[in-house]
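Help needed: design a sequence for this.
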């Protein structure tokens, strides 16, 4: 569901007029906020359309990518590459990584397991826990899907230069950091991005 239900965004002049009635309305802040929501909705729609064409939901794709990370990043270490950190293995780690409840993650894992994309098994580190792993079917799906997915992402962002992309990341990181501060929670952006955003 879109975050912004407006078909047309209000013109800046209209925001200035509204500020006369509501002094707390900062026209430039409102304009930037509305454009942020619109761009987020548009980008999400592009991604959603691509996933729909391949019969997978955003939530299920997120789980597959988190598990793919747990398989492929440690493998890169064997080739001498610097690690970006281990990926999640257990349902609790997956729920944390996807920022959803454990109950939601259980439902996602159940449907992925039903469709043959993941398998639950005793955790190799702690046998009292269950871990989740990708099946060969999931590996093949990702191998077939990801090249087109990455091309779609690159095409969407191709309107920005490399410098503009870095600026966008820096600005969005500042907004995410501010949102976390407003709710008293931890920042949801990596620490190295948050320090670059200041």
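Sure. Designed sequence:
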């Amino acid at each position: 569901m879109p975050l912004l239900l407006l078909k047309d965004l209000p013109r800046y002049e209209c925001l200035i007029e509204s500020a006369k009635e509501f002094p707390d309305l900062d026209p430039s802040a409102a304009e930037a906020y509305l454009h942020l929501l619109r761009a987020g909705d548009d980008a999400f729609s592009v991604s959603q359309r691509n996933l729909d064409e391949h019969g997978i939901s955003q939530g299920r794709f997120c789980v597959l990518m988190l598990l793919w990370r747990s398989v492929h990043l440690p493998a890169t270490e064997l080739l001498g590459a610097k690690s970006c950190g281990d990926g999640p293995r257990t349902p609790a780690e997956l729920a944390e990584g996807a920022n959803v409840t454990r109950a939601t993650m259980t439902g996602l894992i159940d449907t992925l397991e039903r469709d043959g994309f993941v398998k639950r098994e005793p955790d190799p580190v702690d046998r009292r826990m269950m871990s989740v792993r990708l099946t060969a079917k999931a590996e093949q799906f990702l191998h077939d899907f990801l090249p087109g997915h990455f091309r779609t992402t690159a095409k969407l962002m191709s309107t920005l230069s490399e410098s503009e992309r870095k600026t966008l990341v820096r600005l969005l990181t500042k907004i995410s950091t501010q949102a976390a501060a407003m709710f008293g929670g931890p920042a949801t952006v990596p620490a190295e991005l948050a320090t670059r955003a200041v």
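The domain at 58-154 is CATH 1.10.10.10 (Arc Repressor Mutant, subunit A).
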